[in-house]
Amino acid sequence: MKARTPVRTRFALACCIVLVAASPDAWAQLHAAIEHEDEPRAEQPEPPPTDTAAGMPAMDHAAMHGQHGQPAPSKADTVQTDRAQTNPAQAHPVASDHVAPLPPQHDMGAMTAAQMVDVMGMDDDASFGLFTLDRFERVKTDDGYATAWNAEGWYGRDFDKLWFKSEGRRSQGTLEDADAQLLWSHAVAPYWDTQLGVRRDFGQGPGRTWAAFGAQGLAPYWFELGVTAYVGPQNRTALRMESSYDTLLTQRWIVQSRFELNAYGKSDPARGIAAGVSDAEFGLRLRYEIRREFAPYVGVEWHRRFGSRTSVFDTGDERAFDTQAVAGLRLWF
User: What is the pTM of this model?
Assistant: First the structure.
C-alpha cells in the first residue's frame, strides 16, 4: 500500500510554496520560525490582581500608607473600619452627656463593719418606718357634721415591725367612738404579715381592752386586706375585717373603694353594740395626688348599723342607714 502524507506536512509544504512564490525573504523567515518552534517558551508574568468592584489593580494599603510617610493601620483601625462597613452608624460614635465623677480626694481610712454600712448604705436589715394618715376628713351626716380619722404607722425591719393603728369619730365636741391598737407584726409570706397585740376602745361608755391577733397583706388583684380577731374580759369576742382597692384613672387621679365590717360575740349595751354583725361601712373616695405624700379627696360613704340597741346612744331606729358626704386629706411621711 502507498503511505499517506500527514495533513500537517502537506499544509506546511503548501505554505512554503506560497511564501517562496511571494517574496525571497519569506523563506528565511519561515525557516527561522521552524527552528524556534521546538524551543521551550518563557513563563509570562501573571497580571496584577484587580479590584472586582472598580476594575482597577488592587493596591497594598500598608504600602500605600508607607508611600505617604504614614504608619500602616493597626488592628483596632481595621476592626473600626469593618464595623463602619457593617453598620455605618458606628463609624462616628454619638457624644454622651455623661460626666465622669471626680476621683477620690483622699484615701478612706480603716473602718468597722458598722461604719462601712453607714457610709455605703448597704445594710440589708436596716430599720425604717412610715406613718400614714389614710383618712382625715370632715363628714356631713343627717344629724350634722363630724370629724373622722384613720391612721397607722410602723417601724422596724423587713420581717418584724411594730405597728400602731387608730380610728375614730368626733361629733359636736364629743368623742363618739375611737380605738387604738399596738401590734407586733411578723412577715410569714410575700406581702403577708401576722399581727399580735392589744386594742383599747375609747369614747362614750366604758373603755374596753382587747387582746388582738390577725393577719394583713395584699390579696390577689391588689386588694389590701386585713382581718383581726379580738378577745376581751367577760368572754367578749370581736372581729374586724377591712379591705380597700385603688383604681388609677390617671397617675394623679385615683378612686379608692373601702369596706369595713365589725362583729361581736355578745351585746354591749353600754357602748351601743349589738351581738352579731354590729355595723358595716362602704365608701368611695376620689383623690388627687398633688404629690404622692399629699392628696386631698372627696367622696361618699354609706354606713349601716344592725341589731337592737338599748343604750343611751339608741336613736329609736333598730336598722339605721346613713349616707354621708366626706371631704378630707390623705398624707404620709
Answer: 0.63
